[in-house]
Design goal:
There is one protein chain. With about 325 residues, the protein is of the alpha/beta class. Helices cover about 35% and strands about 20% of the residues. It contains 13 helices and 15 strands. A 5-stranded mixed beta sheet has the order 8-7-9-10-11, sandwiched between helices. Strands 3-2-4-5 form a 4-stranded parallel beta sheet. It has a 4-stranded parallel beta sheet with strand order 13-12-14-15. Helix 5 crosses helix 6 and helix 9 crosses helix 13. The protein binds iron/sulfur cluster.
């Protein structure tokens, strides 16, 4: 049994309802290893599944071209919610893949820590896999005498680039508690708010203060901006993923960098990794449009500064 709920019955019902047989399954790398049983059960039900091996970091990245190439009738997009309001080119079903776990102990531990710090109201946010546990954590907080606050519009869901669930309630709370694994989402929340942010990690059973991580990250980003000030030649990467494409924004950055006397090369890429971009060694600095988290997350593998659009705006103010 997988540790994630791939909602087999719903997938089969929706696919049959749309007359789909050939299904392209897209999932983040971390979930691909859990797909064997899901794949086998779909096959046993008469479907023809095919799993995309490409990386998939969000609902912003739908494999529409790939689905058309392999003749898929439908995309089963696992691990994310719908990202864009624009319609999909290929019928797509989003399966959040909730993590199946007993988090009562972690919820009680987190609540104890929040109460121990003297917080009277704590905002709850979670990533897609752990959104169903917000109620459990709210119960834990209330039991510890701490008021739990959840944004009604988003239900508490945060993505790496969307933190409205945290910013909308920041004024009502003393701190925020994120439920989910790793630093990626928790750091996005910490960067978006002034209040203290803690992360309850269901995989490690730990509650982490995000302040030191945020401090280190900010220092590294300001280093990248300062280094980019010395760059004479820039590569501006237009990321071609469906939900990330911002050709207009990229052209605007190009024009304004050129206005400051910089030489700019426009580059199109699906993946803005150094592995893909090493051929552009003539650029002294790289600006990645699209996902704002690619630049900070990939900086360590780049031998030169790599900025996102917001950081490029900061750079332009200083040139
Ligand atoms: S743009 Fe980046 S952070 Fe936002 S959903 Fe896509 S991959 Fe995640």
């Amino acid at each position: 049994m997988s540790d994630y709920d791939f909602e087999l019955e719903r997938v089969a019902r929706e696919a049959r309802g749309r007359g789909a047989r050939a299904l392209l399954i897209q999932a983040p790398d971390g979930l691909k290893q859990h797909l064997a049983e899901f794949y086998g059960r779909l096959e046993a039900m008469g479907f023809s599944p095919i799993i995309s091996a490409d990386p998939c970091y969000g609902g912003c990245d739908l494999a529409e071209g790939e689905a058309q190439s392999v003749g898929a009738d439908m995309i089963i997009h696992i691990g994310h919610h719908r990202f864009s309001e624009r319609g999909e080119g290929v019928p797509t079903l989003y399966v959040p893949a909730a993590h199946i776990a007993d988090l009562r102990e972690l919820a009680a531990k987190a609540a104890g820590i929040m109460a121990g710090k003297g917080f009277r109201a704590v905002g709850l946010v979670a990533n897609t896999q752990h959104l169903p546990y917000i109620g459990e954590f709210a119960k834990g907080l209330e039991a510890a005498g701490v008021r739990a606050v959840v944004d009604g519009r988003t239900g508490g869901l945060v993505l790496g680039c969307r933190t409205a669930a945290a910013t909308a309630i920041e004024g009502e709370v003393d701190a925020l508690l994120f439920i989910g694994g790793g630093d990626f989402h928790a750091l996005g929340v910490a960067n978006a708010v002034e209040k203290e942010v803690y992360a309850a990690d269901p995989y490690r059973g730990e509650v982490k203060d995000m302040a030191p991580v945020k401090r280190r990250e900010l220092a590294k980003r300001w280093w990248a901006i300062m280094e980019a000030m010395r760059a004479k030649t820039f590569g501006v990467v237009v990321v071609t993923k469906s939900g990330q494409l911002d050709a207009v924004g990229a052209k605007s950055l190009k024009a304004r960098l050129e206005g400051k006397g910089r030489r700019v090369f426009m580059i199109a890429a699906r993946e803005a990794s150094w592995e893909r971009l090493s051929g552009f060694a003539f650029a002294d600095a790289i600006v990645v449009t699209g996902c704002p988290r690619v630049a900070p997350d990939n900086q360590a593998s780049f031998p030169k500064p790599v900025l996102n659009m917001q950081e490029c705006e900061e750079l332009l103010k200083r040139l």
